[in-house]
Amino acid sequence: MDISSVLQGGYQHPLSRSWQAQRTLTKNMFMYPIFITDEPDARVEIASLPGQCRWGVNKLEEFLGPLVQKGLRSVILFGVPIHCNKDERGSPADDPNGPVISAIRKIRSLWPELYVACDVCLCEYTSHGHCGLFRPDGTLDQPPSAARIAEVALAYARAGAHCVAPSDMMDGRIKAIKRALIDHGYGNKVTLMAYSAKFASSLYGPFRDAAGSAPAFGDRKCYQLPPTAKGLARRAIKRDVNEGADIIMVKPALPYLDIIQDAKELASDHPLACYQVSGEFAMIVAGARAGVYDLKTMAFETAESFVRAGCTLILTYFTPDFLEWLDN
Question: Which is a GO BP term held by this UniProt record (predicted)?
Answer without folding.
Answer: protoporphyrinogen IX biosynthetic process
